[in-house]
Amino acid sequence: MLWRKKKSAAGGLLGVVLGSRSFGLVAMSQSGEVSFCTGVDLGGGELARLLKEQVERNQLHGDVNLVLLPSQYQMLLAEAPDVPDEELADAMRWRIKDLISTPLDQVEVDAFLLPDDAYRGRVRMCYAAAVRRDLIESLTATIKGAGLGLRYIDLADLAMRNLALQQSLGEQSVATVNLRDRGGLVTVTQGGQLYMSRSLQVGFDHINQQGYGVVDELVLDMQRSLDYYESQQNKGSVATILVSGKHQIEDQLIEELDRRLAARVVKLDASAGLRLAEGVDPAQLSRVALSLGGALRERGEHVAAAG
């Protein structure tokens, strides 16, 4: 259980992503309606002030699931130690101490197990995430300064698991891609369970600077990840790739990826299976997909627990 700050309470959940150049926020009611979403470019403005303005102007209430961006933590895949689940994070803390770039006494570490049949069931594997303690303290202060309560701190990888689950694609293997300015992330899930997460080196900055010629590199990067999943997991091939991003995903990019990858490539339909309140823009919701994945956390937890 990643960084649970307090017990669940009645009411909805706000999914929040706080980046260095922008932030995203999605409010979801307990009944599953998306009541509000926004993505704000800082443009030199102060993050704490702009977030508080959005909260007050739109009369937002409730607890927050703060979703960390991949650039805000180190993620490591390792063999899981033979310890009870509640001791996994402490055990992994010492196992990864020589593999992380920040001294161990300056980071918080949490970990989660992969499904029992991951890696063909040969060995029990887990992911461990390490995040600087001063970053957590700063982001927590920003959330509280906006008048919101912090219920969870989560990872982009698991937010993307929730997005894939929301698409209701059954038991097929689904890859979810989220592009950021300087790179991206690809995850693969099956039956609501996360099996793989890998970083991508190509992001919007590369496409804007080099044009669609850089898609060659993105295709190779994605194909390597899909090949790795298929060779290591024995779960068959990925059937569908869902693409989202911090900025609008152009049709040309989807067409290029769909033409050159074996799996079907489509834009993530962020509104799939959800009720949107009046005024909520589905296109904007797609651009803050990680925040939406955070707001969907408790739905994802229920499926993961049942899997």
TrEMBL record:
<dbReference type="InterPro" id="IPR050696">
    <property type="entry name" value="FtsA/MreB"/>
</dbReference>
<dbReference type="InterPro" id="IPR043129">
    <property type="entry name" value="ATPase_NBD"/>
</dbReference>
<protein>
    <recommendedName>
        <fullName>MSHA biogenesis protein MshI</fullName>
    </recommendedName>
</protein>
